[in-house]
Each structure stands twice: as structure tokens, then as C-alpha cells.
Amino acid sequence: MSYWTQLRLPTERELVVGLYDLRGYTIYCEKTEPMRALDVMARYAELAAAILQDAGGWFVKPIGDAGLFAFPAEQADDAVSAVLALQNRGDPWLTAQGYKGWVRTHMHVGMVAIGRIGAKGREQLDIIGKTVNIVGAMRSEGTIAMTPALFRRLSPPLRKLFKKHTPPVSYIAADDPRPRRG
User: Fold this and answer.
1) pTM, entire model
2) How far apart are CA 153 and CA 164, in angstroms?
């Protein structure tokens, strides 16, 4: 059994929460027939879900060109490694589909409530709380951004892949072209 199948609902847990979205989506939709865009987004969400779930995470839900996902807090390294794998596999996949953009991911760690939400009889498992809101409010033009709380959970080798970026403090990929500030 996995961490996710052992949950008793509703519950409260500390999770790594991530939200990815695809840069260039608005322009893509302006130039692409709706059924083609739906097909590409559905297959990308399938790819993202497989990568995240194979690493021990839970693909909570797709949200158009975005996706919400979670990992147990003690699997912070696995969460970040899965996001790196999503970039390494997903970006070339998007290019092969004629999509001129890339995946961008925001991540944080903290408490969430896990439970079923939705129309009676059609409820879906979801996560709610301040941690999810923090992830949704994060801004970055780079590829990966995380809060200091998540950065502190990473092993030293993974920490070396990121650098501090201010204001506000977030950690971005070390190969991000933005210059370091004092």
C-alpha cells in the first residue's frame, strides 16, 4: 500500500504541494483549434501524472494547462526530482507537439486538509489550505521556484541546484539566467 491509499478522510497532513503551469498557453490557444489544444493538454497531464506518481506523489488534478500535485513532506527530494524529470521529459514532448513554451513549477511545504469536495455524489479528492494558497500566489518567470520552507527540507546535493532569489525570498534553478543580487 502507498502513502496515498492508506489515508483516512478527511484528514490533515503536512505535504509538499506543487503547481505547474505551461508558459505560452494563451498564445498557443489563440493559434490552435480547441480540440487540438484539449488533446495536447490531456496527454501532457497524463505524462505529468505518470512522472509525479512514479516518484511517489499524487497528481491531485489538472487545471487547464496547469496541474496541482502533492508529496509527503518527508519526500521533499523526491518531489523536486520529479519536477526536474517533468522538465527534462515534458519540455521536449511539448516541443514535439508544436507547443512553444515550457513548464514552470511553484512549490511549498506545509499543512493541508485532504478531503472530498464537489457536487453531491460527484465529490472529488482535493487539498485545501494556506499551503495551497501560498503555492498559487507564488510568482516566478523561471522554471522552478520554491519557498525557503521547502528549500530547507532538501538534501545538500539538491540544494546545490538552486540559488536564492529576492524579493520575496524564493529559490530558483541554479541555471536560471537572472543575475545574483548582493
Assistant:
1) 0.89
2) 15
Burial degree of 15 (CB within 10 A; 0-12, 13-18, 19+)? buried
Domain limits for position 84: 11-146
Task: Examine residue 126 and state whether it is found in any structural domain, yes or no.
Answer: yes
Task: Provide the grid cell at 82.
Answer: 520529479
Number of domains in the chain: 1
| Three cell numbers, residue 111 | 499543512
Interval 159-173: pLDDT, tens: 999 988 766 667 788
- Burial of 159 per CB tally in 10 Å (0-12, 13-18, 19+): middle
| Domain-embedded: residue 1 | no
Q: Are 77 and 162 in contact (CB under 8 A)?
A: no
Residues 6+ apart with CB under 8 A from 161: 80, 84, 173, 174
Q: Which of 22, 32, 109, 121 minimizes the C-alpha distance to 67?
A: 22
CATH number, domain of 101, equals 3.30.70.1230
Closest CA to 129 of 143, 140, 115, 147: 115
